[in-house]
Amino acid sequence: MTTTIYTARAILTMNPMQPRAKHVAVRDGRILAVGDLERCAAWGAYTLDERFADKVLMPGLVEGHCHLKEGSMWEWTYTGWFDRRDPEGKVWAGLRSMEEVVARLAEADARMTAEGLPPTQPLIAWGFDPIYFGGERMTVAHVDRASATRPIVISHANGHLMNVNSAMLRLAEITRDNDVEGVVKFPAGHAQAGEPTGELQEPAAMFLVLRRINNAGLLAPMTEAGVRSFARLACRQGVTTATDLVNKLGENDTRVLEAALADDAVSIRLLPAFQAFHGTHAAAAGAEHVRALMPRNTDRLRYGLVKMMLDGSIQGFSARLRWPGHFNGAPNGIWVTAPAQYEADFETYHRAGLTIHTHTNGDEASEAAIDAIERVLARAPRADHRHTLQHGQMIDAPLFRRMAALGLCANLFANHIWYWGDQHYEMTMGPDRAHRLDACGSALAAGVPLAIHSDAPVTPLGPLFTAWCAVNRLTPQGRVLGEAERLTVPQALHAVTLGAAWTLKLDGEIGSIECGKRADFCVLEDDPLAVDPMALKDVRVWGTVLSGRVFPAQ
Fold first, then answer.
1. C-alpha distances in Å from residue 346, one per residue of 286, 338, 369, 506
2. Contact (Cβ atoms closer than 8 angstroms) between residue 410 and residue 388
3. Number of other residues whose CB lies within 10 A of the CB of residue 112
4. Hey, CA dihedral for 298, 300, 303, 304, is it positive or negative?
């Protein structure tokens, strides 16, 4: 048995009983001892590894809500507002007007034509969000300026909406006669009144396109190359454990996951969550399918999570909000799953012993989930279930208190404060509710186990940036949204380590540096507890250690 003792400038253990150390001993991919050299050496012969002598170690960061497509979205054309770095390190400039979006699409169409791709080959784009352009919405008139002949599909940044051009409408057979909820049509008085605008909201409407073109959006099939690309990106951000929080887990999906994660060179542990909405299985068959996969679990691949969804996107105006509704008067959003159906399906997965993560953005959706789960738990009590509400962006203190009483966890979308905080203040929620957007302080005050997340690729993967958002609650316009909801730096670091691990039922294995746990480390150049809180997002990541294997960031 080989023991390696790593020495570091500082080790931030996230264990409150032993918060700091200078040495950690590793054997068989697990932590053998933490403390000074004498304590670690007590286990016998060892190799002293001093490569981290000037670094800071903390537990490998845990991203409790992201998607593997963060690794392969870059195969498509980026059309987002913010500058963004791809997995190879190239920075793509953000687009600040509808004209710039159309121009990038036209460039992509011209490039495809020059490469000899037929005009029937679709152009796929992603990252778009019209909320940054004031009240203007994208329509077929915009997209057809890029190409009226090549089908174009543009996934919004939130993953809940898409825009298409007239060629794609024809291919998908979407006409004025289509009555699927979420197919947006021009209003009365418009020259094209009643015709589809090209905007499609939520899965039922987007399915009309995806049944023809299955390689667009978050639910597009993954490849081994995409998993490897995601792992490289995660390593750069100090992430050792991540979710793929919606995956159909079909035969090809599981083959890709199992093949990629069998390779010791892939530096990530993944927990894919079965898509339990608009899927191919009814709830009973879905639960049986997930349970049948669980015996195939390994250290780096863990089946067993289930993803359910109630509403849509707040900034996409498809979320379900309680009174007084949207600040700009927009109509209420869409039930992706009807509440009664959600309750019935939730109970099936719950009784099967699975851990359920539910997407709720608006407060009406969060309240509906809490109501349903309360009734299910009354009928079928289950200790330590750790069911989690994901996003939960408008949950208020009374709802958090109910969640605590039910043993529910919250994984809040703290990145929203930066990326859409100003838009929520001015357009979707108004000032009062925007000040409790992603109310981390209220969650902790109520005793709700808390994680925070990026929802990558909706926003970029990077738990230290997510922690920065929760600590500072700053918007691009300089607003501080809800100063009383700020986390301290130690609280935010807990939320991206032990807090996230708790929601995944992995806190016994990861999330802190303690004897017996996996030797998962985030290796930093700077001490996040020593820098100014405003500099937390700028802490430099050297790489990671996953189950004892060292991975320098590439």
1. 11, 12, 9, 22
2. yes
3. 18
4. positive
Mean pLDDT of the chain: 96
| Residue-by-residue DSSP string for 206-220 | HHHHHTT--SSSTTS
Kindly write down the DSSP assignment for every residue of 21-61, as one continuous string.
Answer: EEEEEEETTEEEEEESHHHHHTTS--EEE-TTTTSEEEEPE
pLDDT tens digit sequence for 1-37 = 799 999 999 999 999 999 999 999 999 999 999 999 9
CB 332 within 8 A of CB 324: no
The pTM is what? 0.95
Terminal CA-to-CA distance of the chain, rounded, Å? 30
| Ramachandran class of 128: left when φ > 0, alpha when ψ lies in -120 to 50, beta otherwise | beta
What's residue 268's pLDDT? 98
Q: Which of 134, 124, 178, 180 is nearest to 156 (CA)?
A: 124
> How long is the chain?
554
Give me the residue label for tokens 């927009």: 330
Predicted pLDDT of residue 403: 98
Strands 91-92 vs 84-85: parallel, antiparallel or unpaired = antiparallel
Distance, in Å, from the CA atom of 491 to the CA atom of 464, rounded to the nearest integer, reads: 12
Report pLDDT for 220.
80
The dihedral through the CA atoms of 28, 32, 35, 38 has a sign that is negative
Distance in angstroms (rounded) separating the CA atoms of residues 282 and 344: 11
How far is residue 324's CA from residue 551's CA, in Å, rounded to a whole number? Answer: 50
- Measured on CA atoms in the order 475, 477, 478, 484, is the torsion positive or negative? negative
C-alpha angle 542-52-514 in degrees, rounded to nearest 5: 95
Q: How many CB atoms lie within 10 A of CB 229?
A: 21
> Cα separation of 21 and 247, whole Å?
39
Element containing residue 8 per DSSP (H, E): strand 3-12
Name the pairing type of β-strands 91-92 and 152-156: unpaired
Q: Tens digit of pLDDT for each residue in 428-473? A: 999 999 999 999 999 999 999 999 999 999 999 999 999 999 999 9
Q: Are 162 and 200 in contact (CB under 8 A)?
A: yes
> How many C-beta atoms surround the C-beta of residue 44 within 10 A?
8
For the stretch 104-144, pLDDT in tens is 999 999 999 999 999 999 999 999 999 999 888 999 999 99
Alpha-carbon torsion angle 50, 53, 55, 58, nearest 10 = 70
Residue 328 DSSP label: T
Among residues 544, 524, 499, 548, which one has the least CA distance to residue 63?
A: 499
Concatenated DSSP letters of 497-544:
THHHHHHTT-TTTSSS--TTSB--EEEESS-TTTS-GGGGGGPPEEEE
d(CA 70, CA 279) in angstroms, rounded, equals: 22
Tokens representing 151 are: 């089908």
For residue 91, the tally of other CB atoms under 10 A from its CB is 9
